[in-house]
């Protein structure tokens, strides 16, 4: 029994010694540069120390951050002890010292103290696995900790009590005090707009009231407030999935939204590690309570629109206005034209200025004058003739007109698409002289709008009727997603039908995978990201919109790339909206040869035709060739036929793009991607995966179906055999 007791004592002493090594002893110090710039938690998940400021590597924060995430997300940073605490930052040559008096002291290169937590007598410090950096007493109790002095973020197990606050950053890369404050009071939690730089609190724009004792981010991922009677009221809905598999945080972001995030600790090779939003408050900040003072959620003369896809508010300027500071949009918008002179008579004002309509936009607190009842035309005329009126808002149902005054505040916009008059578009495209492409329904020109490059699609009325035009506007204008090309405006005036899109500088995917433009081969990582982007765009159309949207013409020419090769789906001219209770929609045959699913022969069409087309695109991306290429030997002209043959002979490796060494190096991953493509190419549409399943496979949370039919065929191949090939043409050039 004695040897066993001795062994137990030895193990206990060993464990205690190990724990002691994890504590930071008096006399320890950190410097911004060199090997001793931070202290890690025992798990290695968190670090405390000096962190270079983004964009200014000669200046450092004293911070806590996630050390294993790809972006090393900062969750705490030191601020002064003033009533309105300001950011503390130092230069290289500074030092953080835990001195012999048990005090933590931050000193600049001259030895002058610039920050301390106002605590002495600590026996040691520790960076805990919870993300809390503490100064501890001899009995292990906390004398001071970052959890009790939060910046803009809270972590699981952290508790806020009345009087504690979170202050947003001014912008994501500038940790200075921002325009929003979360204030926990004894009567509830309140979100305020705040003046910068004075710190004056304006009106609150969201609240959760009650006799509050604390705000808790518990270990199961729930954020809630506790009332004095013990009732818990959820602030966020909590996380899904295991807490052990994800990192968690809740941050009061620079746009004034309190968001709960999670980030996977492990991730597949097909996707990057990233934070995703679990829940947020307020649900739509653009619809939050108005603030009587200040500019509101966005800066003066701008308006707020909410993107429900990525849970971000966006501040925009009206037509012919631009941001004073593009990086710091909270500073507001300025007109890009000489303001109207009060010396102009009414006739001259009407000749020089024109009202450009925008749907569902308002600045509700900037009234100059009100007229009711009145017509829309008369409302515009009154504003045109008034040199003090930059904007007029008209309400159709009540026939009421409000003339607005500068500066405009509390601006917000609904979901409808902005309308832009044709004369403005002709000006911004230099009379349509810079042609950059031609699609199935018209030509595409490069232009400028508010100093931004845009793509202007001029539709040929003889080739696309009003019905098709309005269908495209309705489809694109009602949705917004990071992997869908954004519609900025449209015009339908007389014979002119024009769509204005965001500009995509890398053009279309076909120019990068067919090697027609002497572009360098895309590496495997870029191809993976492009495929995932396409999948996410289609998943949004099929499963996340109010009505399902079938694109019906998925092909490389309709996949556009931005400067960083992020992919976005374009050209919704063939789209069909499908009610949620409809399983299919009957339509005439359309699409592009080679990408058409077998069920086009029956005209019983669902969104599964897009999944077939996606499978074809996946194969083209992997093989680096067109799916129908008459320059190939006869047996290889049709990519789908070649795929069937190689799959049956287990020779898929023969199809990998040989012009890219990186593809060959990752051949096992490439073949797995090909199997995903083949799953999407199943002749029986019911056996194809949904796009949400495809996304899960690409993100590594699901595997590819193993039992597949390799007898692939397409509607085009059947029609070709039947002698109807002449009814179809080769894929058109890239379109917007």
Automatic annotation (TrEMBL):
Binding sites annotated in the UniProt record for ATP: 457
The chemistry this enzyme catalyses reads: L-threonyl-[protein] + ATP = O-phospho-L-threonyl-[protein] + ADP + H(+); L-seryl-[protein] + ATP = O-phospho-L-seryl-[protein] + ADP + H(+)
The keyword Calcium is annotated on this UniProt entry: no
According to its record, how does it sit in the membrane? Single-pass type I membrane protein
The family database entries (SUPFAM superfamilies) matched by this protein are listed as: alpha-D-mannose-specific plant lectins, Protein kinase-like (PK-like)
This protein's GO cellular component annotations are: membrane
Q: What Pfam families does the annotation carry?
A: B_lectin, Pkinase
Which leading EC class covers this enzyme? Answer: transferase
Give start and end of each Bulb-type lectin domain. 15-148
Q: Identify the EC number(s).
A: 2.7.11.1
Cell compartments where the protein resides: Membrane
Which GO BP terms sit in this record?
response to other organism
**PANTHER family assigned to the protein according to its UniProt record, in alphabetical order:** G-TYPE LECTIN S-RECEPTOR-LIKE SERINE/THREONINE-PROTEIN KINASE SD2-5, G-TYPE LECTIN S-RECEPTOR-LIKE SERINE_THREONINE-PROTEIN KINASE LECRK1
Q: Which family does it belong to?
A: Belongs to the protein kinase superfamily. Ser/Thr protein kinase family.
Q: What name does this protein carry?
A: Receptor-like serine/threonine-protein kinase
From what organism does this protein derive? Setaria italica
